[in-house]
Specification:
Shape: elongated
Helix content: 40-55%
Number of helices: 11
Strand order of the largest sheet: 3-2-1-4-6-5
Oligomer: single chain
Radius of gyration: 25 Å
Structural class: alpha/beta
């Protein structure tokens, strides 16, 4: 018995050491990353099978119901881990040639949605949008104000942005965007929240991806000038990565390989025809951003 325990311990330590070495190598090797992923899936499958066969209590007991609920939860977690590991085993999506954009620069609208954000915050976004590195005769900036504020209108008139409002706030942000789209007629539009300050190069960085005519939208990362909760609480502002970066710069890149990028409400450029094809921004969901992206992708898949 003691010999058996010893051999199990030796095997376990050896497997752990092997995985640790693979983990270190995986920073440079895609093959090692895939081996770790496959190993994790195999161990997870063994665990799920073991749980299903050997760990359930008497079916006539109340504990059996709780055991079923726990097992279903673990099975869902295992399924999600397979998706996660599949993402990490993929190649990077190919990037377009940014020196070849379009024969003629397309018209680009910038739509900034606001409700009650103060002018000092909103003005930074408006001014940054007006200063994009894009031909000025091909660029228009729209401010959709559901707060119907005179000071915002006066500021827009002063700096050259187009102020648009409406009599009601039906469908909230989705309705606001759709209302602006009645006036904005550009071939593409960049959607920004009130506190998102775009870099001057955002159009030249993102529009080349639309060389593929099946591309309906391109989502860029969001970066926040306030520190996240982990950076703040640990007092490690520049030493701890922002929590958003993992999702925006890692997971979204992996999702792009599978044509499964999520629209996250701001910092995205849309092909106008793609929005028209789905009947505008959907208003039947409180997460209209994710719904918009999924409808565009479904439309694209159906048209292939």
């Amino acid at each position: 018995m003691n010999d058996q325990i010893l051999w199990i311990a030796i095997f376990s330590l050896s497997a752990l050491l092997f995985l640790l070495i693979l983990l270190i190598i995986s920073y440079k090797s895609k093959i090692a990353t895939r081996i770790i992923g496959i190993t994790g899936i195999v161990f997870g499958l063994i665990y799920i099978i073991y749980r299903a066969i050997f760990t359930f209590p008497d079916p006539s007991s109340f504990e059996f119901v709780l055991a079923i609920i726990l097992f279903i939860t673990e099975a869902i977690g295992f399924f999600q881990s397979i998706i996660f590991k599949t993402f990490y085993g993929t190649r990077k999506i190919s990037k377009p040639d940014k020196d070849v954009i379009f024969i003629e620069p397309p018209t680009l609208d910038v739509i900034i949605c606001t409700y009650n954000e103060p002018l000092y915050l909103l003005s930074r976004t408006i001014l940054s949008a007006l200063r994009l590195n894009w031909p000025k005769d091909r660029l228009k900036v729209y401010v959709g104000d559901d707060g119907r504020r005179e000071e915002i209108k006066e500021f827009c008139d002063k700096v050259g942005a187009i102020y648009i409002t409406r009599a009601d706030n039906v469908a909230a942000k989705a309705g606001n965007i759709n209302n602006v789209l009645k006036t904005a007629k550009g071939e593409f539009f960049l959607l920004l929240d009130a506190d998102m300050i775009p870099k001057k190069t955002i159009a030249k960085e993102m529009l080349p991806y639309f060389q593929d005519h099946k591309t309906g939208f391109v989502q860029s990362p969001q970066v926040f000038y306030n520190y996240d909760v982990y950076q703040h609480n640990l007092n490690a502002n520049d030493r701890v990565p922002n929590e958003q970066d993992f999702f925006m710069r890692t997971m979204m890149e992996k999702r792009a390989v599978f044509n499964a990028v999520l629209h996250v409400g701001s910092n995205a450029i849309f092909r106008r025809t793609a929005i028209d094809d789905i009947g505008g921004i959907p208003t039947g969901s409180i997460t209209e951003d994710m719904a918009t992206g999924m409808l565009i992708q479904a439309k694209c898949i159906n048209n292939i």
